[in-house]
């Protein structure tokens, strides 16, 4: 069953990241984090981007530890890891591209 | 052709062949329904219940279809006087609600219940009584909703029941209550089916059929059922909150008192968008089964299709806000959900290309199921493309709430569900009724449906782009909408004729068709490894390595598979380890009983009392529910140890009473997944209102003193004691200690409930502010779970007292422990949340 857990790990991580960044977005807008400056930019962007990038690193870790080989279980494991990575990269990319609370 | 299941390295010697007719008679005596009216009321067999689900869903489809004809008649002319506005509102609301909740979901449940044991190689679903309970809840709930239409008090706020339109101010009658209570009643059947389907797929496959080799239908249904476990609770929670607001004035959605109507939209669409894929996935499973057979080849890209299912299951939970693009959400949040909405097209496209590739590499035959498959391709792909258009925010803003959206959703739902389901019905009809179809009628029905559908809905895109809003009953000042509406109305009549002819064709096949030969499509899957029509027990002996496809029909009928016949007079099926399919134990399934009917009836009485506003009588109904459910446990378990069962040469397995990892335990885990989803949504509600809703911060609370803290500590301490008692009771099951430890659990539960009652008396007035109302709900959640935990402790006590626990028999203790831990964890989180609100 390890391959099932591995196959699910990427998409589950995406779900966690998506929920976390969406929650941070809502909290940040409500609490005025956009007006709080940090050396890397507004606290709002830094918080969301930090979580997102940390999550992407975890995704890469899942992918790097996925078993290689032609067995169907190994392939499903890798495909799950890719699904999570691509989904997190694309759906949360707006963190860097759009205005936050407007 | 080889089935995907037929590739296991394991071997299992065959049982000696027996006379097939003798086995058939022996099994029929055990598995068949009771004769006459008792059979109608007491059946729990998956074939009977599955067909009932599908037939009842078909009736609701016809009713919903008639309502749509009324809508089209009204809209055929700009000043239609066919319906008045109030009735029109009821009719379009009922059309949507019936099609979604009383047709589509029950139809897929019915297909799953009927098909899964057959295609996976089992004799029945994991929880036959739960199947029957689900059916009765569906029938009663659906009937309540339908009766409201005849009484003129049907829901009239649209099938997504937005607040504040549906609150007490703007819907003072019972119209919205009918929807909220009736749909929640029906959802019991959906959650029951989800638990049932999940556990059946994971644990009731044929021996040594690993998860990675099971038929694709198994993957699709597994994805569907997990989505149902996670996706339905938001709607159930939303319905409970809105009904409590309507009944008791707790202001979850009232802006003036800290609520927010957007909370309803979030909860509804957290269910509503995954719902689209809940409907689509089983249909896609049917396509992935039918297309290779009709193309005389194997599916192209099994692994890619499984990955696509995985992607859809997850991504579909990240799209819900695209139904709310126009409510004033910040750009960044819009962009998250827009990107996810566009991305979800990728796994869908992977499947479409896999199916096209399968047809390309095979030798396709244009038989009737294949015609419907082609109808699916044409229609669903167009619906998918307009879906991508709607995923783009600027376009969505223009097309929102117009007939364009109506056209899009019909392309997706009829293309993605109705066409595949018609392919499935025509494909499996010989297995259902044992008869071949009458030639040509089906083809005529198909063409009428295809032409009627596209004639109706293709032009509706244009009507929407011309600006016509949804749900209006007259349009006297918009001459540009007249012609497209008239065209839609005319073709909708053609569509209706097509569906009527389809039903007529099914009836002709059932009653007048020639007897079908076995496996008429030459399919490889196990569902065709049986006589036609399928017997009540499916397989005289169960499939295993070397006997795991349709070619094994004769061997299985002669008892060469696993667990031949019914020598002990019980309904037995094999339970496997979920990943590998290794045989684990033999489950003895319950036989015919009216308990599910009685349970649905008492649950129905609760909903009817709520609908009538007789809230003071509802405790009586709740007590009745507890008493009936107690009976479910009372007839489970065994008072003695049993010898191992010789399932096959060299394979001796224990009966389920003597193992820990039973189907019931797995089912409890699945139930807690749904329960956890509901709790997570409740936490989301607290967070959402705290952060987003106007009218916060809330007024000062009286909960900040020492007494509430003491009561919380007592409740949590008692629940912790309950968790310890559950572990000790299971550990001491072979001795008299189990009974005393279970009694300790009951007492601990009573102390916890007493402390929670004290807390309830200290709560701030829940009608004052949404925060106070949510605290009331959090406490209610804890109380309900505390009561159930105490009842499970009592059940364990009764099991120990009556000899249903022993050295290897655990009674209800494992499930009690599981539930107790969940109750403790959620109560602790709730306590921390309230404490954080007070401190921060």
Question: What does this molecule look like?
Answer:
- The complex is a heterodimer of chains A (102) and B (840).
- Helix content of chain A is 75%, strand content 4%.
- Chain A is mainly alpha-helical and 102 residues long.
- Chain A has a two-stranded antiparallel ribbon.
- In chain A, helix 1 (2-31) runs antiparallel to helix 2, helix 1 runs parallel beside helix 3 (72-91) and helix 2 packs antiparallel against helix 3 (72-91).
- Chain A is elongated.
- Helix content of chain B is 65%, strand content 2%.
- Chain B is globular, with a radius of gyration of 27 Å.
- Classes of the chains: A mainly alpha (102), B mainly alpha (840).
- The A-B interface holds A 1, 3-4, 7-8, 11-12, 14-15, 18, 21-23, 25-27, 29-30, 72-73, 75-76, 79-80, 83, 86-87, 90-95, 97-102 and B 211-213, 302-304, 306-307, 310-311, 313-315, 317-318, 330-333, 335-336, 339-340, 343, 347, 578-579, 687-688, 691-692.
Key words describing this protein structure:
heterodimer; A: 102 residues; mainly alpha; two-stranded antiparallel ribbon; 2 strands; 4% strand; elongated; B: 840 residues; two-stranded antiparallel sheet; 24 helices; 4 strands; globular; disordered N terminus
* Helix content percent band of chain A: over 70%
Number of helices of chain A: 4
Main sheet record of chain B:
2 strands, antiparallel
Q: Strands of the biggest beta sheet of chain A: in what spatial order?
A: 1-2
Q: Characterize the overall form of chain A.
A: elongated
Low-confidence stretches of chain B: 1-6
Give the assembly state of these chains: heterodimer
Distance between the termini of chain A: 46 Å
Shape of chain B: globular
Order of strands across the biggest sheet of chain B? 1-2
Distance between the termini of chain B: 65 Å
Assess the beta-strand content of chain A as a share of residues.
under 5%
Q: Sheet bearing the most strands of chain A, described? A: 2 strands, antiparallel
Using a beta-carbon cutoff below 8 angstroms, give the protein chain pair with the largest interface and the number of residues from each chain: A-B, 39 and 31 residues
Report the order of strands and helices of chain A: HEEHHH
Mean pLDDT of chain B: 95
Roughly how much helix do the residues of chain B carry, as a percent range? 55-70%
> Taking all residues together, what is the mean pLDDT of chain A?
94
Strand content of chain B: under 5%
The arrangement of helices and strands of chain B along the chain is HHHHHHHHHHHHHHHHHEEHHEEHHHHH
**What integer value in Å does the Rg of chain A equal?**
16 Å
């Amino acid at each position: 069953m390890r391959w099932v857990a591995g196959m699910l790990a990427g998409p589950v991580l995406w779900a966690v990241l998506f929920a976390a960044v969406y929650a941070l977005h809502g909290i940040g807008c409500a609490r005025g984090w956009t007006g709080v400056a940090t050396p890397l930019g507004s606290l709002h962007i830094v918080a969301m981007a930090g979580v997102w990038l940390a999550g992407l690193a975890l995704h890469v870790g899942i992918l790097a530890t996925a078993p290689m080989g032609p067995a169907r279980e190994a392939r499903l494991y890798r495909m799950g890891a890719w699904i999570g990575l691509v989904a997190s990269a694309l759906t949360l990319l707006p963190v860097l591209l759009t205005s936050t609370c407007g | 052709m080889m089935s995907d299941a037929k590739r296991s390295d394991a071997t299992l010697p065959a049982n000696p062949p027996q006379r097939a007719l003798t086995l058939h008679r022996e099994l029929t005596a055990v598995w068949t329904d009771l004769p006459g009216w008792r059979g109608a009321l007491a059946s729990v067999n998956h074939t009977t219940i599955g067909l009932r689900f599908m037939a009842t869903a078909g009736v609701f489809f016809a009713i919903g279809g008639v309502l749509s004809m009324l809508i089209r008649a009204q809209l055929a002319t700009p000043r239609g006087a066919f319906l008045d506005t109030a009735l029109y509102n009821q009719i379009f609301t009922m059309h949507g609600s019936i099609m979604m909740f009383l047709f589509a979901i029950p139809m897929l449940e019915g297909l799953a219940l009927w098909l899964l044991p057959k295609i996976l190689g089992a004799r029945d679903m994991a929880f036959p009584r739960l199947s029957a309970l689900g059916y009765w809840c569906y029938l009663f709930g659906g009937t309540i909703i339908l009766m409201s239409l005849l009484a003129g008090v049907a829901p009239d706020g649209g099938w997504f029941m937005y607040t504040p339109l549906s609150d007490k101010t703007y819907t003072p009658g019972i119209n919205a209550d009918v929807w909220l209570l009736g749909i929640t009643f029906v959802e019991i059947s959906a959650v029951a089916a989800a638990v049932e389907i999940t556990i059946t797929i994971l644990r009731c496959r044929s021996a040594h059929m690993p998860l990675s080799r099971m038929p694709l239908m198994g993957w699709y249904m597994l994805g569907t059922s997990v989505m149902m476990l996670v996706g339905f609770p938001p709607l159930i929670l939303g319905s409970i909150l809105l009904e409590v607001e309507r009944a008791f004035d707790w202001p979850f959605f009232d802006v003036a008192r800290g609520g927010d109507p957007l909370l309803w939209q979030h909860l509804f669409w957290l269910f509503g968008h995954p719902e689209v894929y809940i409907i689509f996935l089983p249909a896609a499973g049917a396509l992935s089964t039918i297309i290779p057979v009709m193309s005389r080849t194997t599916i192209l890209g099994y692994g890619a299709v499984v990955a696509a299912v995985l992607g859809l299951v997850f991504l579909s939970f990240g799209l819900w806000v695209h139904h709310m693009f126009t409510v004033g959400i910040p750009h960044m949040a819009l962009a998250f959900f827009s990107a996810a909405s566009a991305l979800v097209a990728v796994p869908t496209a992977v499947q479409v290309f896999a199916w096209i590739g399968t047809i390309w590499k095979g030798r396709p035959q244009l038989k009737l199921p294949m015609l419907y498959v082609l109808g699916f391709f044409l229609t669903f792909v167009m619906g998918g493309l307009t879906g991508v258009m709607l995923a783009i925010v600027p376009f969505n803003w223009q097309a929102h709430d117009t007939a364009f959206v109506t056209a899009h959703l019909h392309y997706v739902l009829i293309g993605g569900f109705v066409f595949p389901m018609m392919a499935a019905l025509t494909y499996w009809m010989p297995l259902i009724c044992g008869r071949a179809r009458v030639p040509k009628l089906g083809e005529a029905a198909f063409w009428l449906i295809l032409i009627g559908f596209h004639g109706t809905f293709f032009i509706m895109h244009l009507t929407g782009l011309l600006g016509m809003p949804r749900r209006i009953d007259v349009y006297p000042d918009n001459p540009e909408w007249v012609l497209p509406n008239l065209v839609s109305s005319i073709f909708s009549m053609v569509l209706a004729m097509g569906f009527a002819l389809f039903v007529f064709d099914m009836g002709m096949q059932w009653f007048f068709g020639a007897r079908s030969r076995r496996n008429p499509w030459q399919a490889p899957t196990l569902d065709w490894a049986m006589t036609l029509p399928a017997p009540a027990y499916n397989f005289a002996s169960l499939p295993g390595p070397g006997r795991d496809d349709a070619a094994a029909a004769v061997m299985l009928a002669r008892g060469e598979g696993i667990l031949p016949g019914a020598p002990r007079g019980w309904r037995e099926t094999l339970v496997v380890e979920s990943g590998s399919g290794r045989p684990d134990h033999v489950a003895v399934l319950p036989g015919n009983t009216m308990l599910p009917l009685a349970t649905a009836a008492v649950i129905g009485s609760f909903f009817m009392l709520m609908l009538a506003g007789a809230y003071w009588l509802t405790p009586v109904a709740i007590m009745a529910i507890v008493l009936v459910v107690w009976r479910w446990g009372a007839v489970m378990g065994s008072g003695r140890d049993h010898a191992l069962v010789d399932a096959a040469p060299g394979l001796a397995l224990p009966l389920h009473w003597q193992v820990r990892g039973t189907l019931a335990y797995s089912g409890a885990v699945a139930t807690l997944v749904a329960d956890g989803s509901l709790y997570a949504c409740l936490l989301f509600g607290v967070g959402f209102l705290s952060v987003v809703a106007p009218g916060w911060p809330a007024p000062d609370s009286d909960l900040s003193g020492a007494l509430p803290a003491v009561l919380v500590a007592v409740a949590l301490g008692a629940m912790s004691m309950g968790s310890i008692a559950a572990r000790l009771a299971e550990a001491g099951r072979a001795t008299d200690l189990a009974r005393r430890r279970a009694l300790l659990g009951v007492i601990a539960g009573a102390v916890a409930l007493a402390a929670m009652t004290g807390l309830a008396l200290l709560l701030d007035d829940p009608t004052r502010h949404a925060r106070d109302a949510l605290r009331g709900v959090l406490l209610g959640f804890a109380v309900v779970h505390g009561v159930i935990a105490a009842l499970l402790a009592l059940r364990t006590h009764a099991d120990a007292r009556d000899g249903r626990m022993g050295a290897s028999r655990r009674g209800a203790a494992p499930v009690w422990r599981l539930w107790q831990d969940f109750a403790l964890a959620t109560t602790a989180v709730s306590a921390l949340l309230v404490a954080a609100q007070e401190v921060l």
